Amino acid sequence: MAHAAALSDPGARCGIDSIEIARIERLLRETPAEDLGKLFSADELRDSGASGGRAASLAARFAAKEATLKALGRGLFSGGTDRALREVEVVRDSGPPRLVLHGSVLRAAERAGVQDQVVSLTHDGNSALASVILVVREPRP
Predict the structure, then answer these.
(1) pTM score above 0.90
(2) For 2-136, which CATH superfamily applies?
(3) Which one, of 101, 103, 97, lies nearest residue 123 by Cα?
(4) Cα separations (Å) of 65 from 31, 97, 121?
(5) pLDDT digit of tens for each residue in the chain (141 aa)?
């Protein structure tokens, strides 16, 4: 189940997404390791660990990728794997999660005037959820 919302404040854009963790569990079981790189960066795969929580961690990151695209005003392509998913990377250093954008998604964020971000990830039971708020200042023409 996916949701998107836009804040009325022109200085912020919001995207939210949820995903069933079982979908990512199936993906991990059925997808060759080299093909997982079409959705997740090497760092995302490494940082998710190899324990039972791996699917939940990757599900939250996947939801953040979709939420980011929604905040930028676009959803996923309906046919095949959307390359833009790989262009949104969720990283965790010592603080809260943050986004590193690449390629066409980075260019879209620059055009929109994105200056900052707030990312929240959670998972519980069968679902993972992500909320992304992009702070926008004076978009470029």
Answers:
(1) no
(2) 4'-phosphopantetheinyl transferase domain (3.90.470.20)
(3) 97
(4) 19, 12, 11
(5) 444 444 445 688 999 999 999 999 999 999 998 889 889 999 999 888 765 689 999 999 999 999 999 999 876 654 445 678 889 999 988 889 999 999 989 998 998 899 999 999 999 989 999 999 999 986 555
